[in-house]
Amino acid sequence: MVEGPILRAENAKGDANTILGKAQDVLNNLKGATSAQDSATIAINKADNDITDAEADLTQIESETSAASEKSDMSLKAIELLKIRLEALRKKYIENDIKVKQAEDAAQRASETALVAETRANELEMDYSPTASQLDSRYNLTKAARAKAQDLKDRADRLAGETTNKLDKLRKMQEDFNKNEMTLNQLADNIDELNRNMTIYLQVITKKSREYYKCKT
User: Fold this and answer.
1) Considering its fold, how many domains does the chain have in total?
2) How many of the other CB atoms lie within 10 Å of CB of 135?
3) Residue 148 and residue 85 in contact, taking contact as beta carbons nearer than 8 Å
4) Does the keyword Coiled coil apply (predicted)?
């Protein structure tokens, strides 16, 4: 007669230990998801600020390049300065691209970890024994953990969407870099050609001038 209650107590203890273990697993996964999500948010915010600054610089360079295209007296030195600025901006673009990809990876990890936490919480809820009244508080915590896991997953999905938008903006900036670089190279070639022609003209003028003075003497 005593064995029945003892056996039930042992079973209840085993169930409790199993549930507590899974509850700790859920908690660990939630912490991991939160940490990954925080990393993604920080990376996205930093990249967003840098992209805004880079876009402003690129707009200014585009304006100066456009103005240079309309001036035949644009010096090679000015062209080279624009190209140096464009190259510096390209390096910033590469840094931003790395940051956004890091944010994308972190957001993906957050989503995956939150999904694992949600799955563990569901398993924990299914394994919970209604007869184990002493675990009521753990059961309520499990439901809260599952809700938090879903919230984290939703936030991670939104972060993933934001990183995609940032990558699209960076790709557009890369296209603008290439376009401006081609324009600057063309301007440099045109100025080289003008300088060569001017040298030829000066040589001809000098020669004619010498011939003229020679004839006068």
Assistant:
1) 1
2) 20
3) no
4) yes
